[in-house]
């Protein structure tokens, strides 16, 4: 299942978004190097980029790991758990997700799951889910003619008021302003 489109992945590497580290890798055809989405190295030309779901896939295609972001090294013991939970959230963001669903998926207690994830990721699983939904909504607002209400339900929000509140908190503007390019 393709979680993100090419354009969404491209936007993530331009933003150096660590949320998606481990969910896909950026490979540069001209240098034969692959990186994490959060790599701070100079950004390649868009036409020179391929995306791979796993490190092994990139390496099988002849790419070597970046020395700056070290995508072949786990930087903390809980990185794999954060990646696993983030992948689950990205795959299921359209559905109503409760902490119990994530705990069942990871086979961890609610308390341990939330505490460990929050400590390792710097945000709660709920905040990560909201950011994933708003990322997807941002893409849909600019790339499609869908109404704000349709986007709200498409990305998994249950009520428009919650969608508008969360969107404004994360993006600093309303969905209409964002669609028009008035975001700050």
Structure description:
The chain is globular and about 45 Å long. With 184 residues, the chain is of the alpha+beta class. 50% of the residues lie in helices and 7% in strands. α3 packs across α6 (125-143). It folds into two domains: 6-65, DNA Methylphosphotriester Repair Domain; 75-184, Homeodomain-like (Arc Repressor Mutant, subunit A, Orthogonal Bundle). It is built from nine helices and four strands. The chain has helices at residues 6-14, 55-60, 79-92, 99-106, 110-121, 125-143, 148-154, 160-171, 175-179; strands at 25-28, 33-35, 49-52, 64-65. It has a four-stranded mixed sheet. β1 (25-28) and β2 (33-35) form a beta hairpin. 30% of the residues are buried.
Q: What is the topology?
A:
Elements: H1 6-14, E1 25-28, E2 33-35, E3 49-52, H2 55-60, E4 64-65, H3 79-92, H4 99-106, H5 110-121, H6 125-143, H7 148-154, H8 160-171, H9 175-179
Helix pairs in contact: 3-6
CATH architecture of the largest domain: Orthogonal Bundle
**Order of SSEs:** HEEEHEHHHHHHH
**Tally of DSSP β-strands:** 4
Which strand order does the major sheet show?
Answer: 3-1-2-4
Query: What general outline do the C-alpha atoms trace?
Result: globular
Total discrete domains: 2
CATH class of the largest domain: Mainly Alpha
Structural class: alpha+beta
Mean pLDDT: 91
Give the end-to-end Cα distance, rounded to a whole number of Å: 33 Å
User: How much of the polypeptide forms β-strand, as a percent range?
Assistant: 5-15%
Indicate the low-confidence ranges by residue numbers: none
Oligomeric state of this protein: single chain
Alpha-carbon Rg, integer: 17 Å
CATH superfamily of the largest domain: Homeodomain-like
Helical segment count:
9
Determine the CATH topology of the largest domain: Arc Repressor Mutant, subunit A
Main sheet characteristics: 4 strands, mixed
Helix content: 40-55%
